[in-house]
């Protein structure tokens, strides 16, 4: 399998120094006791917002003991690179534009609460970034209207680096048992087939036509990852999808282990009582748990699909949280596992800033809950609990009522064999099917999801 070229553009290591006036004006918001933030904009990409830490003017930054963090990440495919490189008489040189504010993010009573401190532009030349890392800026920049008399200083790091990925696309909706193609530019090559079916919930062991499971041991570990929660007529359970290679051998699977049940007095799956999928990989003639995906329906104006993914190390029921996202049920979105993002940052397709949806209609919090918030030269080496680093995977799905053919991107460094890629494909299928599993119970599902026959051996 040959990967597709991608470039990761990161903005990080943010800090702000503002000199303290001898007689500060009462109307001026000073960042030493008020929050600071910035808005980061790259042409053709959604605006991203990041918190900017304030440091005293006498301090240096960064120092050797300070954790460096990523504030924003833009993922650029080849088409994005071509569009950004296209010359136009109406457009000047490509720049990353950043506006720095003091005060709180978001409007208060309809009025913006942030006070603009200054704006900066960082010129970008992305030619060659597909094959080598490029540093565009690393250091301090003077900002503010009073730059000549009492300048404020803004610190940032802007760089681009190669981030090749394997790209896969379902040829149909997962519940229709489609083929999965690898995409390389204009080329589409079949690499997997999917088999959607209904697992017999009375038999907790997972079965497949080419992989026999140990029924005795299967009951033990399977029951530790979910519960039956019987509620006839008001639950969705038993869904299973198996990914096969072109020889017909099963190489990954996803199956509901905790039914999707409507909360008492409502017709929705709540965050406090989510349904869950187990993502499985073959091992010694049986299935081995690899990860768990929880999903629920968010309340409020956003009305989104909430997803949380965690790894399951060494058959342990206690997982390692890798990502949490909210996808728009109307527009769909991209579920992202990116271990270079921070809780205050974002990416080109989703953001974790509470209460707003980005380009894909989703928001994301993709740093591990138990990790430092960075990766690579941003300090990820301090987190020894997981082999995954940087961009891991993304799965783009459509909203409710739309034909969804999920597109899956997987970082090259995380694929060493066919089973590795297949596990992420199974995870993407589970995310897509969760859009239906979390559909309001007052709405009907399509016929492919309403069958009642058992999972055939």
Task: Describe this structure as you would to a colleague.
This protein has helices at 78-85, 215-223, 418-437; strands spanning 6-17, 36-42, 48-51, 70-77, 95-102, 107-108, 111-112, 115-123, 134-143, 152-162, 165-170, 179-184, 187-198, 235-236, 239-245, 250-258, 260-261, 275-283, 286-297, 304-311, 320-328, 333-338, 362-365, 391-397, 407-411. The model is unreliable at 202-219, 342-385 and 453-457 (pLDDT under 50). It has two domains: 11-162, Immunoglobulin-like, CATH 2.60.40; 165-449, no CATH class. It is mainly beta. The longest helix has 20 residues, at 418-437. 8% of the residues lie in helices and 39% in strands. The strands form five sheets. Strands 22-24-25-11-12-13-15-16-18-19-20-21-23 form a 13-stranded antiparallel β-sheet, sandwiched between helices. The protein has a four-stranded antiparallel β-sheet with strand order 4-1-10-9. A four-stranded antiparallel β-sheet has the order 3-2-5-8, with no helix packed on it.
Element layout with pairings:
Elements: E1 6-17, E2 36-42, E3 48-51, E4 70-77, H1 78-85, E5 95-102, E6 107-108, E7 111-112, E8 115-123, E9 134-143, E10 152-162, E11 165-170, E12 179-184, E13 187-198, H2 215-223, E14 235-236, E15 239-245, E16 250-258, E17 260-261, E18 275-283, E19 286-297, E20 304-311, E21 320-328, E22 333-338, E23 362-365, E24 391-397, E25 407-411, H3 418-437
Antiparallel strand pairs: 1-4, 1-10, 2-3, 2-5, 5-8, 6-7, 9-10, 11-12, 11-25, 12-13, 13-15, 14-17, 15-16, 16-18, 18-19, 19-20, 20-21, 21-23, 22-24, 24-25
């Amino acid at each position: 399998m040959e990967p597709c070229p991608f470039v990761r553009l990161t903005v990080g290591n943010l800090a702000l120094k503002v000199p303290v006036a001898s007689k500060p004006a009462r109307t001026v918001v000073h960042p030493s006791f008020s929050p600071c933030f910035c808005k980061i904009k790259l042409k053709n990409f959604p605006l991203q917002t990041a918190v900017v830490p304030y440091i005293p003017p006498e301090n240096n930054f960064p120092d050797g003991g300070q954790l460096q963090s990523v504030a924003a990440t833009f993922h650029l495919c080849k088409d994005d690179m071509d569009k950004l490189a296209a010359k136009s008489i109406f457009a000047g040189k490509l720049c990353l534009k950043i506006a720095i504010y003091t005060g709180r993010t978001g409007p208060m009573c309809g009025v913006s609460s942030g006070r603009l401190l200054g704006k900066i532009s960082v010129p970008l030349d992305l030619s060659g970034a597909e094959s080598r890392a490029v540093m565009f800026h690393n250091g301090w920049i003077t900002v503010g209207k009073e730059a000549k008399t009492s300048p404020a200083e803004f610190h940032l790091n802007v760089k681009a680096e190669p981030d090749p990925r394997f790209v896969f696309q379902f040829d149909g909706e997962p519940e229709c048992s489609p083929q999965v193609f690898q995409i390389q530019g204009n080329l589409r090559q079949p690499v997997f087939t999917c088999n959607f079916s209904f697992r017999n919930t009375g038999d907790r062991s997972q079965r497949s036509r080419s992989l026999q499971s140990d029924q005795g041991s299967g009951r033990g570990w399977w029951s530790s990852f979910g519960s039956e929660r019987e509620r006839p007529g008001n639950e969705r359970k038993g869904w299973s999808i198996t990914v096969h290679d072109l020889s017909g051998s099963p190489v990954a699977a996803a199956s509901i282990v905790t039914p999707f049940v409507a909360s008492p007095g409502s017709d929705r799956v709540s965050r406090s009582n989510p349904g869950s999928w187990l993502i499985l990989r073959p091992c010694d003639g049986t299935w081995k748990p690899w990860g768990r995906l929880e999903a629920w329906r968010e309340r409020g104006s956003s009305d989104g699909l909430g997803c949380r993914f965690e790894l399951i190390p060494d058959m342990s029921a206690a997982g390692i949280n890798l990502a949490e996202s909210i996808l728009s049920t109307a527009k769909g979105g991209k579920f992202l596992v990116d271990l270079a993002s921070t809780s205050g940052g974002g990416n080109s397709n989703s953001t974790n800033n509470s209460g707003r949806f980005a380009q894909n209609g989703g928001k994301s919090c993709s740093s591990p809950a138990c990790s430092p918030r960075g990766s690579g030269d941003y300090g990820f080496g301090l987190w020894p609990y997981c082999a995954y680093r940087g961009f891991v995977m993304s799965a783009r799905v459509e909203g409710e009522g739309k034909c969804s053919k999920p597109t899956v991107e997987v970082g090259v460094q995380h694929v060493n064999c066919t089973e590795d890629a297949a596990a992420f494909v199974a995870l993407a299928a589970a995310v897509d099917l969760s859009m239906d599993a979390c559909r309001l119970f007052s709405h009907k599902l399509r016929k492919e999801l309403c069958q009642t026959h058992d999972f055939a051996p």
